[in-house]
Structures are given as structure tokens and as C-alpha cells.
Amino acid sequence: MSAKAATDPKLEIGHVLFMDIVGYSKLLIGEQSDLVLQLKEVVATSDQFRRAEEQNKLVTLPTGDGMALVFRDDAEAPAQCALEIAGTLKSHPRLQLRMGIHSGPVNIVTDVNNRPNVAGAGINIAQRVMDCGDARHVLLSKRTAEDLESYARWQPYLHDLGECEVKHGVRISLVNFCGDNFGNPLVPRKLRRGITDRKRHKRMLSVAAIAAACVFVGGYWIARHEVEQEQKSSSAEIPTKSVAVLPFENLSSNRENAFFADGIQDEILTNLAKLADLKVISRTSVQQYRSKGARNIREIAQTLGVANILEGSVQRVGNRVRVNAQLVDAQTDAHRWAEHYDSELADVFAIQTQIAEAIAEQLRVRLSPAENAAVQERLTADPQAHDLYLRANELTFSVAVDNTHTKEKLTEALHLLDEATKRDPNFAIAYCRAAQAHVSFYWYGFDRSSARLALADSAIQKALRLQPESGTAHLARAWYFYQGFADYEKARAELALAQRTLPNNADVFSLLGFIGRREGRWDESTRNLERALQLDPLTLGRLQQLSSSYHLLRRYADESAINDRALSLAPTDTGVRQIRSQLHLDARADTRSLHATLATIMSDDAGAAQSIADGLLTCALCERDLSAAERALSAIPGEGVELSNLQYPRAYAEGLIGRCLNRNPARAQSAFSRARTEQEKIVLEQPDYAQAIGVLGVIDAGLGKKEDAIREGERACELLPVSKDALEGSDLVTNLALIYTWTDENRRAIEQLAKAAQIPGNLSYGLLKLHPQWDSLRGDPQFEQIVASLAPRN
Fold first, then answer.
1. What 3-state class would DSSP assign to 198?
2. Cα 724 from Cα 524, distance rounded (Å)
3. What pLDDT band is residue 111 in, cutting at 50, 70 and 90?
4. If phi over 0 gives left and psi between -120 and 50 gives alpha, with beta otherwise, what is residue 250?
5. CA quadruple 47, 53, 58, 63: dihedral positive or negative?
6. In this predicted structure, which of 36-50, 486-500, 520-534 has the lowest mean pLDDT?
7. Nearest to residue 119, comparing CAs of 49, 19, 219, 264?
8. pLDDT digits (tens, 9 = 90+) for 678-709
9. Which of 144, 179, 175, 138 is CA-nearest to residue 160?
10. Are the C-beta atoms of residues 47 and 595 closer than 8 Å to each other?
11. What is the mean pLDDT of the chain?
12. Which of 534, 590, 595, 766 could form an S-S bond across to 584 if both were Cys, CB 3.0 to 4.6 Å?
């Protein structure tokens, strides 16, 4: 190491997770080695660990009886990693860990063997924090806890412990990081005597502590300056002409008037979203910021990617309404504009228009004549019709964020909208909402009749007769063509019309993304889905749709990042957790993360088995674990299981296990026969249903009906080729490859797999390498070449 490197270290802020095995020194050498190996395996199952390692943002430092993990760019990373490790430890009762977390200045260096090493106060203090704990404790320094307090997801797990004296008489403030299913809620033994209350007993730092701190203080402030510069750079990317309209507080004595306050917020947001020169965040992303005490405006704006926040309150008393609104500059917390309005209820539209115009003026947004007219528009002259519409709007909005009781919500919304349009037959947007509700009724399968689609079309035509240029009406018609008829050309044409007046509507971009994906326009589709997410960054459904596209494109690093965002929104969602952990199977042929995650889900909630049955079965088959496969089979519900985006009868899964794992031809044949009886009914009822025909083909291949199987598999691909539907057609290409494989047509199977490997789809390196359904092709050089072509590049 050069003299310069020794005297002028390049310090940075490191986020350190330090851990060791409790009671390690008392164990025999063989036991020590076994537990250290278990620790490495447990840490390797952490998604946070893997992601940081893949992105080269992690330094791992072995310490003999444990290890230190230094995350280089994310203050939340050590806590998330500790949380995941604690979950995995439930299945390793002999491995008793304690952990400590601290963020502080570190120096990333290389040792004499050119391996990365870490020095500095950051890692030293993390070790001192850990040393204060007992088995299963996850302790945080006070500084780290203060960083995490800014995030709502961590607040319930932070429990102040006071101070603990460590080496050299230094006292450090500690916080216990624990919850119902992780950590140790007890006060550590070292703190049980003489815990001091910092608020009542302030102590001076010892001379030794000050001296130690001075060594690093210069480097700390240099590193801190770099962090601040990065934050400024990130802020610079946020457009100044951008705003999020937070939910307005309902000040009415009648709590039922909450729908009215939400309606005011929604309509102000809708007015602003009509302005092409302004970025406006969708309502679904701002709903979580309902007023519950003080709001951290700067953090909210950073999360949503906007420079300004509009907030306010609504009070409705009898026939009068009072609205207070204020525009806040998120960078300075300064009020750019504030106003209050007190008027008759009938004048509420004028209030909404004045607020939108004031915001546009403050942010220097250019309004075209058409935009100015759109902002001035009144929805209806009938206050009661408006009330009915607002109630219906809340129901249809709730369907978008919560899919429980969907049929009941849509039914009630349609009733309210019908009453609204009876009172005001010129209520154009009410017809648009009714059309969308009818299409949703059809799409969700509650009523798949042509009469339901006719009702949607009738409502759209009424809206267009009243307002031919209505973007909302053209958007409703685009959904009608997409969800009702899979007519992508007409849907795309309607969206082009909708965009003229709805430049900030996330649904427009999402639907363009869905259409482009089915048309095979993958780059265009992905850009539109990403744009939708920019406008609606905190909606789980949009995150999942973009994640799905990244998965089909085999962009696993991007998929991982999106799934992490989804997990931050819904940390207990079993689907998100399963998909995130299955990445390692698909990308790296590694089942450990999926196995551990599924085990954790089951230990947390035994009733979750049905919802993860597909993952349980896939993991068991890839691990060739017959016992686990049988347990997975018992979890599959009566309606069957979805594998690689195709729906199979439950009996098929039993036949698959019999064929691939326990080599029981009689059991497999019996199960496939039962599956065929069930699947044939679906095909007879829907003779052009390509996916059902393809599944029947695989079942017949399992039964040895070669000619029938091949005819059905090829017919499915003819009905739904990739050129017609790139999204679902690719699954049928892989499906036909499996039929050829099971009917000993290996050459044709390999040709199909080569085709599937070259197009976006669910076929992955891990599934092709590990799944036993492809065993008869193994050893063939062309097959192995296809497997290698799907392997990760780094």
C-alpha cells in the first residue's frame, strides 16, 4: 500500500451489519466449522445480500465466529438483510446469532492478498453495538434507528433501550430491532443493570471516545458531503413543474362526508392532470398519505418524484362547503400559495377550477386554449347527481386498490351511476365510469355475455355524443376493445385520441404497455409501463406488471429491483415474496432462496399453502424431492394449478410427480386419465381456447397418445401464434416443445426450445436446467447449448 493510501484514506458512509455466533468459543472445532458453514448458507439465502452482491455494492468480511456485511449505498439494506436472516434462522435452531447495525465512515481497502477489507469507525461501532446483545438480538445504533424512523415500515420494530457502556468507557445509545416473528424482545443482559435515560442523565463523552472520533471526523464530513451531493443530483432529476395532490382532510362533523372530501381531491387532481406541461401523480399512489399527524413533505415528494405538494381540507355543512388548499415547495417546505374558499355547494366546480388555475400560475405551466376549456368544465349542474357520482367513483376506485368484494362494489357503483344519469342525462363522465364498470364486470368473469358488452358500448356512445373529444370516453372505449374483443388495433387508436386530453393518465400508458406486449413490441411496451409507474409509483399492480415484463424479457436484475419496491409496499404479500425469491431459480438454477421463502411463508401462515402451491410444486420438482412434491400436491386446490402461465387440472400435477419423481407409470397413467376427463370438458365447451387445447396435448403426451398430443399442441400454436399474441403465444411454443419431448420427438422438441429461447417468455435457464420434465433431452449437445444460451452473463 502506498504512503498516500495510508495517510489519506478515501472514506465513505458504510451501512454495516455485524453478526457472530453466540457461544462459539465453547464448541468443538467440528461443531464450529459446521455452524460457520450454516451461517454462510443462511446469509446466502437473503435476497438483500444477493442483490447487493450482484450489484457490487457489498463487502463481506469474515470474522472467524461470524461476519460483517458492509452495504455501500442503502441505509435500509442492513435492516432488511437482518430481517431476512432472522426469518431463515427459524429452521436452524442450533445457530444462535446476535447482530448489530450501524452507519458510519468506513475505508474500503485491499489486504496483502488483494482481497477487499474494511476499516473505520463505522465497522468498529457496529461490532460494539452487536457486543451488547444476547442470542437473537438485533441491535441498532441510535443514528441508524433515526435513519429508519423516516420510513413507516420500520417504525413498529424500533424500541429504545437507552445507553450501554462498551470498550474504553464509551457509551453508545441502542435501539432494539424486533417484532412478533423476529428478534429478541428482552432487554440485553448488559443493559439490565444501570440503564440510563438519556433525557435525564446526559454524560460527557470520554476523552478516549473523542480522540477516536476525531481520527475519522474529517473523513466523515467528506463522505457526508458526497452523500449530500448525490441527493442533490437525484433531486435535480425531478421536474420543477410536478405536483402530487395529497388526500384532503375531511373536517365535516359527518364522517360519511369523507367521500366528498376525496371527490374534491380527485377532481382537482384530474383537472391538473389535463395539463401536458405538468407532471401529476395518480390518485392511487397518494392515497396512503391520508392525514395522520404531521406529514414529512420532503420525504413524500422524494418518494413520488415531484417538486411540489398540494394539500388541503374540506368542510361541508348543509348546503355550503369550505375548502382550504396550500401548495408547498417540497425542497424548502415553504408555502408557494395558499387560499381558502367558502361558497354554496353548487359552486364547488368553480372552486376546483380556481385551485387548478392557481397551481398552474404558480408553477408557470402553459395552458393551451383546449386545456383552459377542459379545466373550466363543469361535470354536472345537479349537486345530488354529483353526490351519487362521487359515491360510485369511490367504489370503482377501491376495486383498483383492493380486489375483495369486487362484484358487489361494481354492482353498487352501476346502480349509483344509473341514478346519477337519470337525474342528469347530460352527465358525460358518469356514462364513462358506467362503461368501465360494465367492461370490468365482463373482464373479471362475473358476466361474460355479449349483453354486458352492449351495455358498455351504449354508455360510451352516450358519453361521446355529449363530448366527442372526451379523453375519458375514448379511454373507456380502448378498454372495451382490449378486454372485450382483444382488438388491439382499435384499442390503440382510441388511446391516441385519449392522450390528447389525458397526458398524465397512468392507465393510458399501462394499457399501451399491455397492448405492445401482446403485439411483441417489447421495447415500446416496457417504456410505456415504466412511464405509467413514474405517474403512479406506489401502486402494487403497476409494479407487478412491469416486473412481469422484465421477467419475460429475462431482465432479472431489473425485475429484482422492481420486486424490492413491491416488497416495500407489501412486505407480507405472499405472491410478491414468492416471485422475488424465485428469481434465483430462474436466473441461476438455485432453489435455495425459493425454498427458504416458501418455508417462511408456511411457518408464518399454514393456511397460505394453496396460494403458493405452484411454487411449492416447482421447487420440489427442481430439487427432485418426492416428499416435498407430495406435500405440494396436497396444497393444490380443486380448480388446479397454474404452471408457466397455463392452467392445469390438479390430477395433472399428480401425474407429473408420478412420471418425473417416483417412476410410477401406473400412478401417472391413472392421474393423467383423470386429468384428461376434466380438461376435455373445457375443450368441448370452448373448442377454440388455445391454452386449454395445449394443456390437453401435454396430458395426452403423458398418456402416450402421441398423434393426439402432437395434433393438439400444434393446433394450440396455430390458434394463438406469437405473431398474434406474443405474451401467451410464447407459452404455447414451450408447451409444444414439452409435448415433442414426451412423445420422443427430440429433434422437433429441440427446434421448439431453440425458438422459445430466442423470444421473451417464461422459459428460463433454471427451469430448463433443473426441471425433470426435460430429462429425456439431457446430454444432447444441442439441448445443452440452448440451456447455456439462457445462462446469466455475469
1. coil
2. 17
3. low
4. beta
5. positive
6. 36-50
7. 219
8. 999 999 999 999 999 999 999 999 999 999 99
9. 175
10. no
11. 88
12. 590
- 527 with 553: CB under 8 angstroms? no
Of the segments 166-170, 539-543, 662-666, which one has the largest average pLDDT value? 539-543
Query: Any alpha helices (H) in 402-487, and if so which ranges?
Result: 406-423, 428-443, 450-466, 471-485
Q: What angle do CA 261, 265, 270 make, to 5 degrees?
A: 145
What percentage of the chain has pLDDT greater than the value 70? 90
Measure CA of the first residue to CA of the last residue in the chain; give whole Å: 30
| The dihedral formed by the CA atoms of 347, 348, 349 and 353, expressed in degrees to the nearest 10 | 100
Which residue, among 44, 98, 20, 105, has the nearest Cα to 70 in the 3D structure?
A: 105
pLDDT for position 255: 65
Name which residue leads in pLDDT, 698 or 108. 698
Looking at this protein, which amino acid is placed at residue 219?
G
Q: Provide the grid cell at 735.
A: 408447451
526, 549 Cβ separation under 8 angstroms? yes
* 333 vs 155: CA distance, rounded Å: 23
Q: Compute and round to an integer the Cα radius of gyration of the chain.
A: 30
For 332, counting Cβ atoms within 10 Å of its Cβ (0-12 exposed, 13-18 middle, 19+ buried), the class is: exposed
Grid cell at residue 61: 468480511
Phi, psi of 7 (to 5 degrees): -100, -15
**Number of Cβ atoms within 10 Å of the Cβ of 504:** 22
pLDDT at 115: 60
Q: Where are the alpha helices (DSSP H) in 295-405?
A: 297-304, 348-362, 369-376, 383-401
Which tens digit of pLDDT belongs to each residue from 726-776? 999 999 999 999 999 999 999 999 999 999 999 999 999 999 999 999 999
pLDDT at 169: 65
Is a pLDDT exceeding 70 seen at residue 395?
A: yes
Alpha-carbon distance of 192 to 497, in angstroms, equals 69
Cβ-based neighbour number of residue 15 at 10 Å: 28
C-alpha grid cell for residue 290?
Answer: 391520508
Q: Which grid cell sits at 419?
A: 341514478
C-alpha cell at 376: 373550466
**E strands within 5-96?**
11-21, 58-62, 66-71
Place of cell 364486470: 441
Among 88, 4, 21, which residue's Cα sits nearest to residue 50? 88
**Rounded distance between C-alpha atoms, residue 209 and residue 206, angstroms:** 5
Pairing of strands 242-245, 158-165: unpaired
- Range in 203-207, 393-397, 475-479 with the lowest mean pLDDT: 203-207
The secondary structure of residue 759, as a DSSP letter, is S
What's residue 220's pLDDT?
A: 38
Please tell me whether residue 771 adopts helix, strand or coil conformation: coil
Tally of CB atoms within 10 A around 251: 15
Q: Which three cell numbers stand for residue 129?
A: 453495538
pLDDT of 188 strictly over 90? no
Res. 109 pLDDT band, cuts 50 70 90: low
The set of cell numbers assigned to 154 is: 420500520
Cα torsion 345, 346, 349, 351: sign: negative
- For the record, the C-alpha cell of 746 comes out as 427430440
pLDDT at 487 over 90: yes
How far from 657 is each of 651, 738, 776, CA to CA, in Å? 10, 15, 15
Name the H helices within 134-206. Answer: 142-148, 189-192
Q: pLDDT value at position 703?
A: 97
Residue 381 has pLDDT above 70, yes or no: yes
Q: What is the DSSP string of 694-752?
A: HHHHHHHHHHT-HHHHHHHHHHHHHHS-TTT-HHHHHHHHHHHHHHHHHTT-HHHHHHH
CA distance 589 to 618: 12
Predicted model pTM: 0.71
- How is residue 503 annotated by DSSP? T
